[in-house]
Amino acid sequence: MTELALHNYELDDHCYKVRLLLAALGCRYVKVDVDVHPGHEEHSARYLELNRLGALPIITEGRFVLHGAEAILIYLAGKYDAARAWLPQDPAELGRVMQWLAFAGGDLQPASLARAHALLEAEADEQHVSHASRRAFRIMDDHMTRREFDDGRWFVGAAPTLADIALFPAIALCRDFGIDHDEYPALRRWMARVRTIPGFVTIPGIPSYH
Amino acid sequence: MSFGAGWYPVALSNGLETGRSAGTRLFDRELCIWRDANGMAHAWEDRCPHRGMRLSFGFVRGDRIACLYHGWQYDTQGHCRFIPAHPDLDVPDTIGVATYTCTERLGMLWVYSDREVETPPDLPIGPREIVPVRSLYVDCKPAAVMQALAARSKNIGSAGVTLLSLDADGRDLLTGIQPYGEVKTALHMVLPGDPGVNRGAVRHAAAAWAEGLRRCLEQGTEQIAERAATHEVAP
């Protein structure tokens, strides 16, 4: 199979990042459903061969295999976004996008874990992941608060980038694990903007109406 | 320090866009704030009377807000006007959401905290030119924040309304206090004066100062009082 395939679990927030970009790019791809809960299929021999970490998302394209949402976003933007709108070429903007991608893959990981704990029986120290999530959301809200002073609508630059895609799921889904949006007003406004990106798709937990 | 019935800010005006809703709390009571298509702001109990869903999760269409669960639509008075599952029903006036009196002043949305008072007193704050800075959410008890800030500011509000004039590195930062919950306080901050001067670098500096204030408050309100006292005797 040479066509692009996303090994996907519908409720996984990291998979959702990839689905968001694929939809925004209008990419054709095959969705391969993986039974994460309760089957733990991502830890099966077949899937460990694709990603030894036993985690989704994974994409395959011919013999090419790639795992990790942020890496996949960069690959897809590099390959399928001819205009390079999603991954800016300007070194300063590219650096900032990478900074937020690292944040999304690292500092927001407690939020993913908190949600997996609430929805999918993942083990987690509730107090720790909740505290770490709020700390990360606050950093994001402080950033967007100041961006708005200069009429900035997106995390980096004048148009949406991979940073917006990678940061969106954790905060948009945080009500799943008991954190309200009340104290992140700048993120609430930014989330409304993300929803206007052409091709935007939802996930259970994010209402279609808004 | 205690907080009685009165006017409290719950958001910055520019933070609540036309056609949008948001959730907040006052004394741990959940509020839905929303702005209709005509730009009028509303503050209600955050509860759809149908199934108890938070109305702030809902969506604004024109001069109505609809609940996310089953689409019940409420007009600006809080009366239910349309139930999608019963489109032909003339909805009785008894189905409605509890509303709070609210008004906008100094770039903040103010709510009168006591719904039992039928005609609350006017908010005793005049209009002024301002530049909105930010809403700052602090994980501290409202009374402790009030006490810590009182040491480094003066209350320029009147008739029971708290409006602090904070010295933010030499600049006046008007700050309204929202007793959000037991251990959470929101501070709504604006720069008074010529917007032409206060936009740009001045506003960025004020926001940075506010973030520092939040760190100090959360690290210990006693430290603040000490720092303020030291500051006052310094030349």
Any key phrases for this structure?
heterodimer; A: 210 residues; four-stranded mixed sheet; 8 helices; 8% strand; B: 235 residues; alpha+beta; Rieske Iron-sulfur Protein; TATA-Binding Protein; five-stranded antiparallel sheet; four-stranded antiparallel sheet; disordered C terminus
Give the arrangement of secondary structure elements:
The complex is a heterodimer of chains A (210) and B (235).
Chain A (H helix, E strand, L loop, with lengths): L4 E4 L4 H13 L4 E4 L11 H6 L7 E4 L2 E4 L1 H12 L10 H15 L3 H12 L5 H24 L12 H11 L12 H10 L16
Parallel strand pairs in A: 1-2
Antiparallel strand pairs in A: 1-3, 3-4
Helix pairs in contact in A: 1-3, 1-7, 4-7, 5-6, 6-8
Chain B lengths: L6 E6 L8 E6 L2 E7 L5 E5 L13 E3 L2 E3 L6 E2 L5 E3 L16 E2 L1 E4 L2 E5 L17 E9 L3 H9 L2 E3 L7 E6 L2 E11 L2 E9 L2 H4 L2 H19 L1 H13 L2
Antiparallel strand pairs in B: 1-11, 2-3, 3-4, 4-9, 5-6, 6-7, 7-8, 10-11, 12-16, 13-14, 14-15, 15-16
Number of helices of chain B: 4
- Rg measurement of chain A, Å: 17 Å
Distance between the termini of chain B: 30 Å
CATH architecture of the largest domain in chain B: 3-layer Sandwich
**What amount of the residues of chain B lies in strands?**
35-45%
Largest contact between protein chains? A-B, 16 and 25 residues
CATH-defined topology of the largest domain in chain B: Rieske Iron-sulfur Protein
Which parts of chain A are unreliable, with pLDDT below 50 for 5 consecutive residues or more? none
**Whole-number mean pLDDT of chain B:** 90
Number of domains of chain B: 2
| Radius of gyration based on Cα positions of chain B | 19 Å
**Low-pLDDT stretches of chain B:** 229-235
> What coarse outline of chain A follows from CA principal-axis ratios?
globular
- Main sheet characteristics of chain A: 4 strands, mixed
Helix content of chain A: 40-55%
What's the order of the H and E elements of chain A? Answer: EHEHEEHHHHHH
The fraction of residues assigned to DSSP E strands of chain A is: 5-15%
User: Mean of residue pLDDT of chain A?
Assistant: 96
Order of helices and strands of chain B: EEEEEEEEEEEEHEEEEHHH
For this structure, what is the CATH class of the largest domain in chain B? Mainly Beta
The CATH superfamily of the largest domain in chain B is known as Rieske [2Fe-2S] iron-sulphur domain
